[in-house]
Amino acid sequence: MRHLLVSYHTCPLEEPGAGLAGGMNVFLRGLLPGLARLGIRTDVLTRGTGSSPETTGPWPGVRIVHVPCGWKTPASREGALDALPRFVAGARRLVASPGQAYDVVSAHYWMSGVAALHLFPSHRPPLAFSYHTVEALKGRPAGTRPDRLFLARTAAEGLLAGEAERVVCFTRRDLAATRKVFPRMAGKGAVIPPGVDDAFRRSRRRTGARRLLGIPPRAFLFLLVARSDPEKNVSQAIAAFRDMAPEGPRDGVLLVAGQERPPGAVPDGVVFAGPVPHHRMPGLYAAADAVVCPSLYESFGLVQLEAMAAGVPVIVPAGGYWGESIGREGGGLVYDPADPRGIGKAMRAVRRDDALRARLSAEAERATAAFTWERCTESWARLLSRLSRRGSRRGTPRAPGGPRRRGAGRPGVS
Is 209 strand, coil or helix? Predict the structure, then answer.
């Protein structure tokens, strides 16, 4: 089977850090090699910065085509939206080249979904789409006026609910919430949880990890991993950490990974590590005593998964997937986000009680044992295979103006 994955906003070959689309990179790097091992050959169309298409083959059975689109750096959502039409035009020429045919298409995140819809003016292969996050579920502050990006995204997400043949969510909770927003996706939903790399499950020496980070051996280390985005609610965690200072010894550290130090003064003990490559994240979790995750909206939350797989207790608000899961299975502490002191109470509790942390650590490892990339990729392979068979029953897709064809050539790009 030949599978086309449109990954406009994220390049799976980039070293994913705690920055723009970092979690999306982690997901694709876990998914693509597994699909190849299961016999699904995947071509990935992603954005490029050169003057002509560039192709790489990072894993057997996977090719990544970088399509020039005028992508500007530093990356921003607004810049990505501006460059999208040029990406679509270049990608459309590639998929319409001689010898080109795909059995199924997938896309992750809304801009990639929009691109996938426009690549095939007629006879589009079946599309599997994953929102990952939905704008309408985030909640906007009162009085906020919708901007161009908001309007484009909400319109696109509604369109994709109707046009995609299957819509994949990470959890049943996320699927139910998304279905309420988009009634047109009724009957199309599928739930496929992500995996977590084995590197996070391996035992690592806490002392060595702390030495590399410059963290004192006896300090209590809170870790917070989030890109620079108001939705991540980082300021609340920093304020709670600051308020803890007068109540105990001055040996606490709050390490914020994914953000540069902001201008102005920051509370004592707060350290900004900037974007961190994903291969260094297991070392951060090994050094941490607890991971704080204050974001009020996450469709899933890879940080929570990775931290718990490493046996580190997490602190999360009630209401999200991890709030509900931890409430049932343990592995962390859940606080009421409506209580201004809720996050601080949870941070104090996990810091003061060694026995509590030990229990939560064991619970966290048990609760995340089932999240593997093997299970994730096997589920995706079954879904793509079913869609491919559905597409073949209704006629083999064809490139615009080209004859119907069965058979698989590789992309006509170099």
Answer: helix
Q: Is 411 among the domain residues?
A: no
> Do residue 83 and residue 191 come from a single domain?
yes
Q: What are the beta bridge partners of residue 62?
A: 42, 59
- Give yes or no: residues 265 and 164 share one domain: no
Distance separating alpha carbons of residues 127 and 211, to the nearest angstrom? 48
Position 153 in a domain: yes
* Domain span including residue 280: 198-367
Helix (H) or strand (E) holding 200: none
Residues 220 and 161 in one domain: no
Q: What is the CATH number of the domain that holds 261?
A: 3.40.50.2000
Beta-bridge partner residues of 257? 225, 274
Determine the Cα–Cα distance for residues 365 and 151; give it in Å rounded to an integer: 41
Q: Which of 35-44, 62-71, 92-101 has the highest mean pLDDT?
A: 35-44
Distances (CA, A) of 26 to 18, 131, 134, 373, 408: 10, 16, 19, 11, 29
Burial of 205 (0-12, 13-18, 19+ CB in 10 A): exposed
Residue range 86-117, pLDDT digits in tens = 999 999 999 988 777 899 999 999 999 999 99
Burial level of 214, CB count in 10 A (0-12/13-18/19+)?
Answer: exposed
Tokens of 19: 């920055």
205/352 same-domain check: yes
Give the whole-angstrom CA distance, residue 107 versus residue 44: 10
Residue 334 domain flag? yes
Helices 148-163, 77-95: inter-axial angle, 10-degree rounding: 40
Measured CA to CA, the distance from residue 260 to residue 254 in angstroms comes to 14
Count how many domains the chain has: 2
Whether 52 is covered by a domain: the verdict is: yes
243 and 187 in a single domain? The answer is no
- Which tens digit of pLDDT belongs to each residue from 259-305? 889 888 889 999 999 988 888 999 999 999 999 999 988 888 899 99
CB 310 within 8 Å of CB 201: yes
Cα–Cα distance list, 362 to 210, 352, 355 (Å): 21, 18, 11
Helix, strand, or coil here: 197?
A: coil
